[in-house]
Amino acid sequence: MEASFQITLQMVFTVLAGISAQVMAAYLKLPSIVLLLLLGILLGADGIGLLHPHLLGTGLEVIVSLATAIILFEGGLKLDVRELGRVSVSLQLLVTLGTLITLLGGSIAAHWLGEFPWNIAFLFASIVVVTGPTVVGPLLKQINVDRQVATLLEGEGVLIDPVGAILAYVVLDTILNGDADPLKAIMGLILRLGVGAMIGAVGGYLMSWVFKRASFLSFELKNLVVLAALWGLFSLAQMIRTESGVMTTVVAGAVFANSSVPEERLLRSFKNQLTILSVSVLFILLAADLSIASVLALGWGSLFTVLVLMFVVRPINILLCTWNSDLNWRQKLFLSWVAPRGIVSASVASLFGISLTQRGVNGGDAIKALVFLTIIMTVVCQGLTAGWIARWLEITSKDATGAVIVGCNPLSLLIARFFQERGEGVVMIDTDSEYFAQAEAQNLRVIANSALDAEVLEEAGIASMGTFLAMTNNGEVNFVLAQRASEEFSPPRVLAVFPRDPQAPNSANVKVNQAFVSDLAVKTWNEYLSNGRVKLGTTTLNEAEFSSQQEHIQEKIRSGVLVPLLLEREEHLQVMSVNQDWEVGDRIIYLLYDSRPNLLKLLSGASQSTALALEKLPEVEEVPIAKLSQLSATEVSGN
């Protein structure tokens, strides 16, 4: 068989295996890297022997370099400067102080427990200071952890990769050249970071400029122009200063993403597809090239080294780097647990193993085996348990509290009152100041601006809020606002008051729930509230009368006299949606139209100036006997 065809088969088998692992991971809802590692090892020399990456020769290094550039650029595209601003201090500490803590802690553990010489121990620690954005990103998307934690983990994963890769190269260069001058090593690290950042910043700006102004290019061609420019920038940085290219790709992606480029989402989609392909190919190839015998030969000391990294070094890292942050202990505990190593660690370890072997330095295979043991243990243990731990700690996005309400009117102020009474943060947004005084009297924060501006939503703190509710008098505007909030910020619960069939593009693809009831006349009910023509009621659904209670309430909703506002379930308060499924034990808070003349209400002691009191109303609590008899007869005939 010709050598060229053998290489072709190797690449075809690699791509087939990688995409198959991605498909299986999506079906089984598992982190894809787990299956990529297992399948790569299974197909490698220590498995069925189908894949032999060494046949690619120096081509393997080329594939690793170019694919890593794509992966880190896509990671840079995800860096949102506004979101990172909230955790900037903690993130800076994780990338600087955290790197130093992991470097020292990992090298001490590898030397004392793994019995590696100090030079190899430091090299190992420098490789595993990085976390894996290609592992962290899909993992966070799968478990939907709260936004602040997700931003910190994603930012750490992307920014620490170039720092760690360059640090590892500086350590390797020191080992190979026998130069142990720490000042020279630090200067080499800073120089590579600086060169890479400068080239990346200029390159990212030029790419965004071309993307904005080259209207004669089709969008497909623009994507390829960005890809070609990315690889060009990476190569330029590598020529000027070796290993500075990794910093270039991250900075270029971040600058491009924060330059307000039109149709950026489509570019991200294209780059995301390339990243999935790159990760699949790299992990399959690198795992197939791993010697299981070398991993087993490490012994118990290396296993304890990894455990110390996971259960001692990482918690110390998080404790010191988030000491003065506003993160609670649950968030810090989750951050201490989740630090999976990914493709950058695997790539650097594989390339360094080759370099050490070629230069006659012992430990090349051992350090690669130890890095892969770290990857396997962190990915499998943390990847498979992160979702359970997030739910146990109650830091998933669905557990987020508070609300951003667009539209400051009597109805929205009433809803805000209930959230506020439970100690949850509420922010009102409106351009009309008519009810601002009432909101301020309730100590509610009001932003007098348009919610169409993403910066206004950022100012309102939507990233950490559990609910977004748009309820102005204009239903079409409400839907557009909710749609944009869902696309831009993905709050756990997005609701809006809108017509039954909103005339908005892609309405079926956006998770916007219709609030309260279909076609709610916000203006009418606001007038009812202002004129004292409503009662505020609450009822709890019980098991004995569950069906009759539902039917009775739904009948009043259909007749237009009752609007369900809020649902309390398991001590969590949420805005009622049209398609809400009710359960036994649910507490429903509603408004009931009061048809009595104002004079009669005044004679009965009611006052328009009196705040609505929450009470059980006989009109809802007392189901008519005829209705109960009808329901009982229906149940009997059904049996």
Automatic annotation (TrEMBL):
<feature type="transmembrane region" description="Helical">
    <location>
        <begin position="184"/>
        <end position="211"/>
    </location>
</feature>
<keyword id="KW-0406">Ion transport</keyword>
<feature type="domain" description="Cation/H+ exchanger transmembrane">
    <location>
        <begin position="14"/>
        <end position="392"/>
    </location>
</feature>
<dbReference type="InterPro" id="IPR006153">
    <property type="entry name" value="Cation/H_exchanger_TM"/>
</dbReference>
<protein>
    <submittedName>
        <fullName>Sodium/hydrogen exchanger</fullName>
    </submittedName>
</protein>
<dbReference type="InterPro" id="IPR038770">
    <property type="entry name" value="Na+/solute_symporter_sf"/>
</dbReference>
<keyword id="KW-1133">Transmembrane helix</keyword>
<dbReference type="Pfam" id="PF02254">
    <property type="entry name" value="TrkA_N"/>
</dbReference>
<dbReference type="Pfam" id="PF00999">
    <property type="entry name" value="Na_H_Exchanger"/>
</dbReference>
<feature type="transmembrane region" description="Helical">
    <location>
        <begin position="246"/>
        <end position="262"/>
    </location>
</feature>
<keyword id="KW-1003">Cell membrane</keyword>
<dbReference type="InterPro" id="IPR036291">
    <property type="entry name" value="NAD(P)-bd_dom_sf"/>
</dbReference>
<dbReference type="GO" id="GO:1902600">
    <property type="term" value="P:proton transmembrane transport"/>
</dbReference>
<feature type="transmembrane region" description="Helical">
    <location>
        <begin position="223"/>
        <end position="240"/>
    </location>
</feature>
<feature type="transmembrane region" description="Helical">
    <location>
        <begin position="303"/>
        <end position="321"/>
    </location>
</feature>
<keyword id="KW-0472">Membrane</keyword>
<keyword id="KW-0812">Transmembrane</keyword>
<feature type="transmembrane region" description="Helical">
    <location>
        <begin position="366"/>
        <end position="390"/>
    </location>
</feature>
<feature type="transmembrane region" description="Helical">
    <location>
        <begin position="152"/>
        <end position="172"/>
    </location>
</feature>
<feature type="transmembrane region" description="Helical">
    <location>
        <begin position="120"/>
        <end position="140"/>
    </location>
</feature>
<dbReference type="InterPro" id="IPR003148">
    <property type="entry name" value="RCK_N"/>
</dbReference>
<feature type="domain" description="RCK N-terminal">
    <location>
        <begin position="404"/>
        <end position="500"/>
    </location>
</feature>
<keyword id="KW-0050">Antiport</keyword>
<keyword id="KW-0813">Transport</keyword>
<dbReference type="GO" id="GO:0006813">
    <property type="term" value="P:potassium ion transport"/>
</dbReference>
<feature type="transmembrane region" description="Helical">
    <location>
        <begin position="93"/>
        <end position="114"/>
    </location>
</feature>
<feature type="transmembrane region" description="Helical">
    <location>
        <begin position="274"/>
        <end position="297"/>
    </location>
</feature>
<dbReference type="GO" id="GO:0015297">
    <property type="term" value="F:antiporter activity"/>
</dbReference>
<dbReference type="GO" id="GO:0005886">
    <property type="term" value="C:plasma membrane"/>
</dbReference>
<feature type="transmembrane region" description="Helical">
    <location>
        <begin position="333"/>
        <end position="354"/>
    </location>
</feature>
<feature type="transmembrane region" description="Helical">
    <location>
        <begin position="62"/>
        <end position="81"/>
    </location>
</feature>
